[in-house]
Structure prediction request, 100 residues.
Amino acid sequence: MRTALVLALLVFAMPAYAANHAVQIKGMKFHPAKISVAVGDTITFKNADSMTHTATALDGSFDTGQLAKGKSAKVKISAAGAHPFKCSIHASMKGTVTAK
Prediction:
């Protein structure tokens, strides 16, 4: 019984690790366009399109800057809630990060 209690305490004492998620930019779209993450997670945006793109949160919480073909940028999601984003060069390209 004591061993089980010690093991249970160790499991709950383990630190939570942030996850990394990936969004590909291809065909003038974000793939996936909607993604759910935990606060503290990171998202790597990779541009597989022939044109330069950005992933810019409308609330200002993240911005990849301009990504040329083959380039990527990692952003950290620091606040809970929905964070709609778009390509600041091509306004029809939209997505949403939802953080819990």
Observations:
- Strands lie at 20-26, 29-31, 34-37, 42-47, 56-57, 72-76, 81-86, 94-99.
- The helical segments are 2-13.
- The chain has one domain: 17-99.
- Residues 2 and 8 are 10 Å apart (CA to CA).
